[in-house]
Write a structure and sequence with these properties.
- With 174 residues, this protein is α+β, with helices and mostly antiparallel strands.
- The protein has helices at residues 28-35, 56-64, 97-104, 135-156, 166-173; strands at residues 9-11, 19-20, 23-25, 43-49, 67-68, 71-72, 77-82, 85-90, 109-117, 120-121.
- It contains five helices and ten strands.
- The strands form three sheets. Strands 2, 4, 7, 8, 9 and 10 form a six-stranded mixed sheet that branches.
- The protein is globular.
Length: 174
């Protein structure tokens, strides 16, 4: 538990049986821009899977998108680290998405760890430990979120007038 006198917002979530990087911030707007799927912030997971080796057809399916019971996923970036270890990068955040994707290609997850969130890497931080981000890391998060915001607006044909929270503009528009 991280103690703070300020209200902290979790940036995303991890399933109870997933370990790894999770961010806490006192900036609700930043938390929204880092987690909402329209901003496409990448999250990378390291998965140890069953039924090794993971062959090219399974990797191709993950890279092309997987049909799940709640709809088709966006294509994932996948790197085979070893015969039973994959790094998979997604920008969505559906419930147990990585686990369900790997199950769908015949490789159920044994262990899953989030090793990257946007520009931040977990590195050697031990499980259960926390640290404050550096000023440079915070700036990278903010500038990455700003760029994702601009790209999302270009893609969806929206222009924001006067700055502020993108969610507020969506509510006002519809």
């Amino acid at each position: 538990v991280v103690r703070s006198r300020r209200r902290l917002y979790p940036v995303g979530r991890l399933d109870a049986d997933t370990t790894g990087l999770i961010l806490l911030t006192d900036d609700g707007e930043l938390a929204h821009r880092l987690t909402h799927p329209s901003f496409e912030v990448p999250k990378t997971y390291r998965a140890v899977v069953r039924n090794a080796p993971v062959r090219e057809p399974a990797l191709r399916k993950l890279r092309e998108a997987i049909e799940l019971e709640d709809g088709r996923t966006s294509p994932a970036k996948v790197r085979r680290v070893s015969s039973s270890v994959l790094e998979i990068t997604i920008h969505e955040g559906r419930k147990r998405q990585v686990r369900r994707m790997l199950e769908a290609v015949g490789h159920p997850v044994i262990t899953l760890e989030r090793v990257r969130f946007g520009p931040l890497w977990l590195g050697k931080l031990e499980e259960g430990k926390h640290r404050r981000l550096t000023a440079v890391e915070i700036e990278k998060l903010r500038s990455g979120a700003d760029e994702a915001d601009r790209a999302s607006r270009r893609q969806h044909g929206r222009r924001q007038r006067g700055g502020g929270d993108p969610a507020r503009h969506r509510r006002a528009d519809g």
